[in-house]
Amino acid sequence: MKEEKNIIEKMEAFFEADNFSEVEKLLSEFEGKKDARFWMLNGKIEHKNQRWGNAINSFQKVVDADPSNKEAQVQIDIIKNIINYWNPDMFNP
User: Over the stretch 46-85, which tens digit does the pLDDT of each residue have?
Assistant: First the structure.
């Protein structure tokens, strides 16, 4: 359990240092309990890589585990706004 916590803290530190490739590597290799912190990091990486469906799924797992988590809900709302963005000028040459 403590080792899992240390790995997640290490991933969070890499994320804060903008070392996203290392976070992605550690996420893919992680074999511990996937809790809200894990899914939040995974969602942030998926968001960063514009994999919207995967990001929403990860953030939804955070909300399912902790319904009071506002950050995850805001991230879901942001992604839905990105997906639903429509600019009428794009269709008027």
Answer: 999 999 999 999 999 999 999 999 999 999 999 999 998 8
Measure the CA–CA gap between 88 and 86, rounded to whole angstroms.
Answer: 6
Instruction: Give which of 39, 80, 78 is closest to 62, Cα–Cα.
Output: 39
Q: Taking the complete model, does pTM exceed 0.85, yes or no?
A: no
Per DSSP, the residues of 22-81 read HHHHHHHH--S---HHHHHHHHHHHHHTT-HHHHHHHHHHHHHH-TT-HHHHHHHHHHHH
Answer yes or no: is pLDDT of 1 > 70: no
- For residue 20, give the H/E element and its range: helix 20-29
Q: Please list, residue by residue across 25-41, b when 16 or more beta carbons sit within 10 angstroms of its beta carbon and e when fewer do.
A: ebbeebeeebeebbbbb
